[in-house]
Design a protein that fits this description.
Blueprint (H helix, E strand, L loop, with lengths): L1 E3 L22 H15 L4 H26 L17 E3 L10 H4 L2 E6 L16 H13 L8 E5 L13 E5 L2 E3 L1 E2 L7 E2 L9 E3 L5 H7 L2 H7 L4 E6 L9 H10 L5 E3 L4
Parallel strand pairs: 3-4, 3-10, 4-5
Antiparallel strand pairs: 1-2, 1-11, 6-9, 7-8
Length: 264
């Protein structure tokens, strides 16, 4: 196993507003905005319209960035994509053994991504639920120190509303984006649901950073002195907190670290 060489502070630099250019005031943007406003106008309650407008903000920023890059000829340079080099890897065996890890654990929070609502009720080998097993893992780790380690669950909008979870888990919601289409007659259109409203789709795992900021969770964690977040899917029970890796991350002041294994 190797570690590929985050502190929360860099997240605050990701979503910076950018001034629009004349090129971006295009037919595509105009058509899409008009369609969004038309669907919003059919919403009965003003409080619902306000909530939907807030939901649309991350999507509009992403769409704006897509248009900006398209109009300015941005493209992915595949020649710059290369395999990970040996000097970018830190062999697990080379890391110093963790000793007093309380100081490092005090800076830690854990985030689990609930990809599907089915994962909440999916049983493990011993009959325990995935969420229960995750809570048990964090509880066992927390029992070694005199403070709690925050456990955050990132849920999707289509998760089961009836899914139960322990009270000590903080839940934040993933963004949802309206489904759009493109054809010869319309630069960009918005798909509607059977009821005439928006047809939504999940924003994807890349929305983790936006969700942490939008929910206020980032500020809350920083105010508690939390600086490191370990992120994994809910069904990845092997993604536990390794005090040795954690202490190495703190000691080297590494902002982002990824645990990888050799393909055999």
């Amino acid at each position: 196993m190797q570690i590929l060489r985050a502190s929360f502070s860099w997240l605050q630099r990701i979503f910076k507003p950018r001034a629009a250019t004349p090129q971006e005031d295009s037919g595509a943007t105009s058509v899409l905005n008009k369609e969004l406003e038309r669907i919003l106008g059919s919403t009965t309650y003003s409080t619902t319209r306000k909530a939907i407008r807030q939901e649309l903000q991350p999507f509009l920023k992403l769409f704006d960035r897509y248009l900006y890059r398209s109009f300015n000829g941005y493209s992915l340079d595949l020649t710059k994509i290369t395999p990970t080099s040996e000097h970018q890897l830190v062999r697990y065996e080379s890391i110093c053994k963790a000793e007093d890890v309380n100081a490092s654990l005090s800076k830690l929070a854990v985030l689990k991504v609930e990809i599907s609502s089915d994962l909440v009720v999916l049983g493990g080998k011993d009959g325990g639920f995935l969420l229960d097993l995750t809570v048990q893992q964090i509880s066992n780790l927390g029992s070694t120190c005199d403070f709690d380690i925050p456990l955050i669950l990132l849920k999707s909008f289509d998760s089961l509303a009836s899914s139960q979870q322990p009270a000590n888990i903080v839940t934040i919601m993933q963004s949802k984006y309206p489904k759009i289409f493109r054809d010869a007659e319309s630069p960009y259109g918005v798909l509607r649901s059977a009821s005439g409203g928006f047809a939504w789709c999940p924003a994807g795992n890349g929305d983790i950073y936006n969700a942490i900021m939008r929910s206020g969770m980032l500020d809350q964690l920083l105010s508690q002195g939390k600086e490191i977040l370990i992120v994994s899917d809910l069904d990845n029970l092997g993604a536990t907190v390794d005090p040795q890796i954690l202490q190495h991350m703190v000691a080297t002041e590494t902002e982002f670290m990824l645990k990888v294994v050799e393909k055999r």
